[in-house]
Amino acid sequence: MNLVDPYQLLRATMGACTSTPNSPDDARMSDMTHKRPVFRDIPSNSSNRSSSTVSSITASNTSNGESLELCPSRYLNNAPEWLPPKHAHRDILDVLTQPQCSESLGQGVSASVRAAYYDNKLCAVKRISQSGEFSYLLFATESKVLSKIRHRNIIGFVASLMDAQNYYLILEKADYDLFSLMTQCAFTEARCRRIILGLLRGVAYLHSRGLAHRDLKPENVVFMASEPDCPRIIDFGDAEMARDDLSYTEFVGTPSYMAPERLTTHNGAQLKKSDVWAVGVMAFEMFAGRRCFDGASQREVFQGILSGKWAWDAQRTPSASMCDFVARCLCADSNDRLSASEALQHKWLN
C-alpha cells in the first residue's frame, strides 16, 4: 500500500472540517467533492416507518391537543422528489413544539441539534442550513439511509422536513453520548464488552446492507438513560455504499478514528474494515481512559496511526482476550483485520 504524506492531505482538507472539535485532533475531515449519492441503492427493511408520515403533516399542540394545519399556498415547489410534498413548507417549523426548556443537543459547523416535540413525541431535530456546499447531499444521504434501515443499535428515524432556508431531520432523542461518558472515568472491562457488543451489532447490520458509516467515534454513539449499555449509532451524513469492486478516495472522518488505508485510495471491503478499526480504537479508549492515537496536532495523530504504534498502560491492562480483540481490530493491514461479523464471534464477546 502506497501511503501519502498525511500532512499533505491535512493541508488539502483543513478547509473542509465540518464539526466542532473537542480537541485539536478531533476536527472531522470532509472532502466530499466526489461523493456518490448512496441512497438509491439501499435495500429497505423499514418501509412502514419511512412512509408513515407521507399522507399528511399536522402538528398537535402539546398544551391543548389541537391540530395545526399548514397553509396550502405556502408549500414549496422545489422540494426533492423523494421528500413527501407536504414535508416541504415555508412554515414547517410550526409542526414542531419547543419544550419549556429548549435544550441544545449539539452544535457543529454544518448542523445544530435541538430538542422539540413532533407528533407529541420529544425528538432530536437536526437542522442543516441550505447555504452549505454539501448541505443537500448530507441531508439526502442521512435521510434516505435512516429511513430505510431499522436496528436496535442505530438511532431511530422519524421524518425529514424542509423550509426555504433549512433542512430538518427528526430523529429519536438520546440522552447522552459515549464521549461524555468517557470524560467522566475509564470503563470496567465488563461494561466495555457490553457496549462494544451492541456497537458491533449495529456496524455488522450496516455492512450486511452494503453500508459503511465512515465516521464512527464516541460523539456518534449515543444512549438512552433507560438503556445505559445499549449504544445507538448516529450521524450518517458521510455514509457510503461500500462495493468491493469500486475504489474510494473521499477523505472524510475524524483523524483519531481513521484507519491507515483511509489516507489513500481504498476499496469497499477496506471501507467497511475501517469501521471496525474505529470500534477497536473506541474499545481501547473506553478501558484505558485516554487516547489510542494522540498528538499535539492532526499531523502527529496521522503519524501515530501510520506507525501502528499503540500500547496499554502497564498499570491498567485488560484481560488477554480483550487485548487480542483490540489488536485484531487495529491490524494495520486491513486484510488481517477482523470484519464486523468476525469480531462478533471473538471470544472476548462470547
Overview of this protein structure:
With 350 residues, the protein is α+β, with helices and mostly antiparallel strands. The chain has 2 domains: 6-31 and 175-349, Transferase(Phosphotransferase) domain 1 (Transferase(Phosphotransferase), domain 1), CATH 1.10.510.10; 39-172, Phosphorylase Kinase, domain 1. 27% of the residues lie in helices and 19% in strands. The protein has 9 helices and 17 strands. The chain has helices at 6-13, 47-50, 135-147, 178-182, 189-208, 268-288, 298-307, 320-329, 340-344, and strands spanning 29-31, 59-60, 67-68, 96-97, 104-107, 111-118, 121-129, 157-162, 166-172, 176-177, 211-212, 221-224, 227-233, 240-241, 247-248, 251-253, 266-267. The strands form 6 sheets. Strands 4, 5, 6, 7, 8 and 9 form a 6-stranded antiparallel sheet that branches. The longest helix has 21 residues, at 268-288. The radius of gyration is 20 Å and the shape is globular. The two termini are 34 Å apart. Mean pLDDT is 83; it is low at 1-21, 36-40 and 46-66.
What attributes does this structure have?
about 350 residues; alpha+beta; Transferase(Phosphotransferase), domain 1; Phosphorylase Kinase, domain 1; 2 domains; six-stranded antiparallel β-sheet; three-stranded antiparallel β-sheet; 9 helices; 17 strands; disordered N terminus
CATH class descriptor name of the largest domain: Mainly Alpha
Overall outline: globular
Radius of gyration over C-alpha positions, nearest whole angstrom: 20 Å
The CATH topology of the largest domain turns out to be Transferase(Phosphotransferase), domain 1
* End-to-end Cα distance: 34 Å
Q: Please summarize the sheet with the most strands.
A: 6 strands, antiparallel
Q: Approximately what portion of the residues adopt beta-strand conformation?
A: 15-25%
Low-confidence stretches: 1-21, 36-40, 46-66
Residue-averaged pLDDT: 83
Q: What is the correct CATH architecture of the largest domain?
A: Orthogonal Bundle
Number of strands: 17
Helical residues, percent: 25-40%
